């Protein structure tokens, strides 16, 4: 059970980047739909659980050191090739976004008065040093920060429950005036799961392959999906209850944390940095093992080079390019989700 919790915690750590932990993604995909966003967050929870279990089990059933083999098994020769190319680009791109965000967002620069460039360097170095561990060590490191984030979110939620003075109808109405990432709450929930799975599928598959049994892998993936869903529901409810405070805020949860007490604001900023770090580690590792096996003699040297290239890319407008890819990944992820369930059904049928 311990290994299942490690896989589950690491799954959360991969998915929960800066946008998730700050509340900005939750605001656009769930809270902006008011009461309907609550239903959407529950749908997203169930989907993350099902996909987490399925993908982790496939990773164990089709042992691999990268996502390539499983993606081709899921999508076939043509769709698999397309998914492989886009996911691989996306992995590197998300890591670059984390490097850039660590310096420029309301974290190193705004909270700790550290220059953006220095903040990005710190994030890149921390990421590379972690990646010099073996995959089991990486999973442990990524999973360690998940409980910390959940504790901070519970503190902010408790504050929102105690201090909220708006009626639910008023919260619902005001929430619907906020910017949404989709035209309908159902599409918002599906898109959110879709592009996050597209980003997290690579390391989830690798993590599943390290499990001792298929049951441990599947349980770990499902636990990760459940923890993700709990975080989505809690953050969504928190933002909805304090919508009058967080409306138009770039980092809603950080704004609420700072309102409680400056010290809580610092703890939340640390959580945001931790989530960026987790995501960067997962993305760079998954990107690298797509091309080079972890037991390759020069694997660690290649990790260092890729980390340096990623840091450099964070200054040349690459993040804007990746931002344009996010929306595409969301819709392409629908094909990935459908193909995943079809592949799991096909695999189960063939092994009966």
Provide structural commentary.
This protein is mainly alpha-helical and 352 residues long. It has one domain (2-351): Hydantoin permease. The protein has 16 helices and no strands. The protein has helices spanning 2-15, 18-22, 24-29, 35-61, 68-104, 108-112, 116-131, 135-163, 168-175, 185-210, 214-241, 243-246, 252-260, 262-289, 299-313, 318-351. The longest helix has 37 residues, at 68-104. Keywords: Membrane, Transmembrane, Transmembrane helix. It comes from Lysinibacillus alkalisoli. The chain crosses the membrane at residues 33-56, 77-100, 112-133, 145-162, 182-208, 220-243, 263-286, 298-319, 325-345. InterPro entries: YkvI-like (IPR038728).
Salient structural properties:
single chain, 352 residues, mainly alpha, Hydantoin permease, 16 helices, 83% helix, globular, transmembrane helix
Main sheet specs: none
Q: Which stretches of 5+ consecutive residues score pLDDT under 50? A: none
The tally of domains stands at: 1
Q: Would you state the CATH class?
A: Mainly Alpha
- Give the distance, in angstroms, between the N- and C-terminal Cα atoms: 26 Å
Number of strands: 0
Helix fraction, binned, reads over 70%
Annotated CATH homologous superfamily: Hydantoin permease
Summarize this structure briefly.
The chain has 352 residues and is mainly alpha-helical. It has one domain: Hydantoin permease, CATH 1.10.4160.10.
């Amino acid at each position: 059970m311990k290994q299942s919790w490690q896989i589950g915690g690491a799954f959360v750590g991969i998915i929960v980047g800066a946008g998730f932990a700050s509340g900005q993604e939750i605001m656009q995909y769930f809270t902006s739909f008011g009461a309907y966003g609550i239903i959407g967050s529950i749908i997203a929870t169930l989907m993350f659980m099902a996909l987490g279990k399925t993908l982790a089990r496939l990773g164990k059933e089709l042992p691999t050191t990268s996502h390539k083999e499983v993606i081709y098994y899921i999508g076939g020769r043509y769709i698999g090739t397309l998914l492989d190319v886009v996911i691989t680009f996306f992995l590197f791109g998300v890591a670059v976004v984390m490097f850039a965000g660590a310096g420029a967002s309301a974290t190193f620069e705004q909270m700790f008065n550290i220059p953006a460039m220095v903040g990005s360097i710190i994030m890149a170095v921390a990421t590379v040093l972690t990646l010099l561990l073996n995959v089991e060590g990486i999973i442990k490191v990524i999973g360690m920060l998940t409980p910390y984030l959940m504790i901070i979110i519970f503190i902010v939620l408790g504050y929102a429950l105690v201090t909220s003075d708006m009626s639910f109808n008023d919260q619902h109405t005001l929430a619907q005036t906020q910017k949404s990432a989709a035209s309908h709450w159902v599409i918002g929930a599906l898109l959110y799961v879709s592009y996050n799975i597209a980003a997290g599928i690579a390391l989830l598959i690798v993590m599943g392959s390290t499990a001792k049994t298929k049951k441990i892998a599947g349980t770990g993936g499902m636990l990760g999906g459940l923890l993700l869903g709990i975080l989505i529901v809690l953050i969504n409810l928190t933002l909805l209850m304090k919508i009058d405070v967080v409306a138009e805020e770039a980092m809603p949860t950080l704004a609420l944390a700072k309102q409680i007490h400056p010290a809580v604001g610092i703890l939340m900023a640390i959580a945001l940095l931790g989530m960026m770090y987790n995501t960067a580690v997962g993305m760079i590792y998954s990107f690298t093992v797509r091309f080079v096996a972890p037991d390759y003699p020069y694997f660690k040297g290649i990790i260092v080079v890729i980390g340096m290239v990623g840091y450099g890319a964070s200054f040349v407008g690459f993040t804007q390019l990746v931002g344009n890819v996010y929306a595409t990944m969301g819709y392409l992820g629908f094909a990935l989700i459908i193909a995943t369930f079809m592949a799991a059904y096909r695999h189960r049928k063939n092994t009966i």
